[in-house]
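Hi C.,

You asked whether I'd gotten around to modeling the 315-residue construct. I have! Everything is below, sequence then structure, no commentary in between.
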Amino acid sequence: MNDQPVMSSENPYASPAAAAELTASFVPAPPPTKPRIWTVFVALVVMLVAFLVANIIGGIGLVVWYFAQDGRTDRMQTDLLEFAVQPGPFLLMGILGQAALGGVALAAAWLSPEPLMRRLGLVRPHWSASTTSLAIVGSLGPFAIGITFAYSLAEVLDPDPSIEKMYEAMRPAWAVPFLLFISLVPGFCEEMMFRGYVQRRLLQRWKAWIAILFTSLVFAIVHIAPHAVVFAFPLGVWLGLMAWRSGSIWPGIICHASVNGLWNVWQLGVRFDVFPEEPPLALLIALGVLGVGAFGASLRSMYRTEAAGVSPAAN
């Protein structure tokens, strides 16, 4: 009897599957696919069209409303200009415009393969609640810069009088609905569109400072009126920085709503003679010191936290 082990003549790599596996081990992996960002520019174009359509619909609604109130054709243009700055029509146009921004953001995120809440940055912040609080108070810095830009521009270009006329026409019954709208609706809709959808996608391909500056510029331009544009830009940079470092738009939503709400509380307080038109110098100095201190502290706190960023794999 032959006690020698029997040597198999079968080649272990002769099967097609094994041969393919061996061949694949020597083939370099293809380079990773770069995340798509062309969808950002499509979404911005759609947003612009939706914004224009919303304003056209609102304008038609105002005309119908005007004639329902026995308006006259020969006075329509003059009356409509005055009617449009009343609190009710102003809120109607604002709601339609914000619905266009928020609707496009939601639709674009829904079409993305990434879960909607994560695509828009509606996730838990990467940093602590104390850092969010500091950043909100620190927004006094960008706010002051924006106000300075707006007042400087007013020296050479008269501001749009429609906002001032709207405040003059404001009645106490409209104050609370107006404050709720101006605080919450832009805070959600604009942050979802700009810092949520646009900036988060651009961060997957562009350097952070380029993505934040581009998003802030578009955010400012959407405010249309030149004085509002120069005011919104530095605040947009701050909101973009918050969204980038925290990995969430929730801190920006809270900050945006706080800035809009507090500014309009002050304006309405002046309108109804609750606050003086010129704030006391001591209050301005105190706010300045508080804002500078909180701005520096929040920057320090932000940059002690690793930027959450976004996943380049999800596109």
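If it helps when you're writing up: DSSP finds 13 helices and no strands in the chain.

Thanks,
B.
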